[in-house]
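chain below, 350 aa
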Amino acid sequence: MSRPPITSPFLLLALVLSIAACGPASDTDPGTANVEAPAAAGGASTARVEVPKVEREGVWQPGPGGTQTPLWPANIPLAKPDSGDRPEATGNGSPTVGGRPWHWATYVTRPTMTVYRPKGRNTGAAMLVLPGGGFHAVAMDLEGTEVCDWVVRQGMTCVVLKYRTPQVWPQRNGRQQRPEVLLGLEDAQRAMSLLRQDAADYGIDPRKIGVIGFSAGAYLVANMSNTDERTYPLTDAADRQSWRPDFAIVAYTARMLDNSGGRNDLQLQPWVRISETAPPTLIIHAMDDPVDDIRQAMAYALALNDAGGPVDMRLYARGGHAFGMRPTTDPVTTDWPEQVRTWLLGMGVL
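prediction:
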């Protein structure tokens, strides 16, 4: 059953409050051009400048090199996001990141994945990218296609997931609760299974498919890593393939920490499950993140370690939230991609 539509002002306000990164629009959104933070040596200024927000109806389209395909057969009925049958829209977020606006897609009822092939050498490895957006939208450039630009240069196939949104998390007794059915998780599991089924067509080794997620997308990565059952009924042969990633990268994760026990209590929320079979995981976070406290990452890392899973962490003093891969004067923005590369080399993925 569809929930009441979410109005555009509500969505834009939620995006501002969550400050979750987003992704590319097919062209420049009105009202955002030529608005940049002052440049600084070594990268753009870390200053984030408020810009006008513009939303328009239309299905997000990838730029050159990306092939977008539906996740589900057209005749398969899907649970709808909170916006019901409202047509898909794209827009820009605020403030700027790395001196530039960022862009999102929302009211997504028919999710897709967009595949980018490696440039030059093909290692056979692949990375599924889950952008953030606070479950209100899907960040499509800052935490999506821009990540793929880097991934394909490493000789990997890159896949950006545009999952169903918006899906607001309910409140009970003043505390946030996880939705009983998480639409983004269903779409992420489906995308991973499709990649494994069609690995030969994509030139992918089905044993070298990992996932990277940011903010809300990072929460989905944690779910993919630790969920021992598929969260939707079998659709076709693809769903007989495993949805669990071979490696996982979690950037400024959200919605993991139960802080009711006090500031230094690193307990997980009751809906978080940790599996002994979770894949090797790399966690990236900034100590000054004002949206998702560093304790989110610490609690998850400790839980994985207690379960016996291999987990690495890369923590940075500054970087805030939703920094993506855009170079700024904060060292994290230029350092973490090389840390990921070193980690992947150490595991024999590259």
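DSSP finds seven helices and 18 strands in the chain. Confidence is low (pLDDT under 50) at residues 1-41.
thats it, cya
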